[in-house]
Amino acid sequence: xxxxxxxxxxxxxxxxxxxxxxxxxxxxxxxxxxxxxxxxxxxxxxxxxxxxxxxxxxxxxxxxxxxxxxxxxxxxxxxxxxxxxxxxxxxxxxxxxxxxxxxxxxxxxxxxxxxxxxxxxxxxxxxxxxxxxxxxxxxxxxxxxxxxxxxxxxxxxxxxxxxxxxxxxxxxxxxxxxxxxxxxxxxxxxxxxxxxxxxxxxxxxxxxxxxxxxxxxxxxxxxxxxxxxxxxxxxxxxxxxxxxxxxxxxxxxxxxxxxxxxxxxxxxxxxxxxxxxxxxxxxxxxxxxxxxxxxxxxxx
Length: 300
Ligand SMILES: NC(=O)c1ccc[n+]([C@@H]2O[C@H](COP(=O)([O-])OP(=O)(O)OC[C@H]3O[C@@H](n4cnc5c(N)ncnc54)[C@H](OP(=O)(O)O)[C@@H]3O)[C@@H](O)[C@H]2O)c1
What we know:
Elements: E1 6-10, H1 18-26, E2 31-35, H2 43-51, E3 61-65, H3 70-82, E4 91-94, H4 99-118, E5 126-130, H5 135-146, E6 150-155, H6 158-172, E7 178-183, H7 187-190, E8 196-199, H8 210-215, E9 221-224, E10 241-244, E11 253-255, H9 257-277, E12 283-284, H10 286-299
Parallel strand pairs: 1-2, 1-3, 3-4, 4-12, 5-6, 5-8, 6-7, 8-9, 9-11
Antiparallel strand pairs: 10-11
Helix pairs in contact: 4-5, 4-9, 4-10, 9-10
């Protein structure tokens, strides 16, 4: 009898995200088992408990890392990788709060718009990330910076943004990448220089006003992941897909939350299938999410 695909789903939270559970089953995993309120120090034990009970080389066992904190999730994924005892192995995939696949979807959609409407990529563009201290914004900022943009993480408190930008530079980015912090209030001082706005603020909070769009004379693309009205960017509809942004003085295009959500969904599904179908262990993070989001966007 063929052995089932078993996904051990760990989270620091009280509950797993039902979204992630549905996604895993729909991608073909046969059994999904929740482990809740998990601490980082418990991950090695869970991994080693999972690997020794299945035949070496089977590769039909996975760990999904959920939770909310992207840095903790990366640490857990790294522990998962280090806890292998070949030939007893397991695959891992982290997507805390959907942040890795959502950020990847946003970046892939912005790249598509930059290419289509302006024949550009992220290289040397000025990018601001509103809500950049949240899980989605932080990872979107890292992915834009690693693609060559000069990126600012924005939030209500500059010190918090500075601290996070420095942490991400050290932890995830190579030399030569540019990532700094600034406050939402500082935006008016550089709004005229900004090429791309990534809005990833909390649900139902508008962070870019009609007036900001008038002042943003170089703005090319504004993308927003908040699907709860009002949108994070004035005039941007959740369904909008790389179409002219109402109120933009520079002819920018807008990408709304549902257009990004479609790519997020596809990227997460492809990552779960990649884990299920791989003959060797794989460990998938936000860089893999971006690769598969790009693949999906360019296949349409
Ligand atoms: N489209 C999709 O597929 C998808 C998937 C997942 C999530 N989402 C959406 O993506 C967005 C980001 O998610 P997230 O979990 O990263 O967000 P989050 O942590 O809830 O919020 C992001 C940031 O928004 C800022 N913020 C919170 N309350 C605010 C307020 N009252 N006024 C101004 N700023 C405020 C905070 O930054 P500071 O405290 O530093 O100011 C916070 O770090 C959300 O809107 C979420 O619903 C979309």
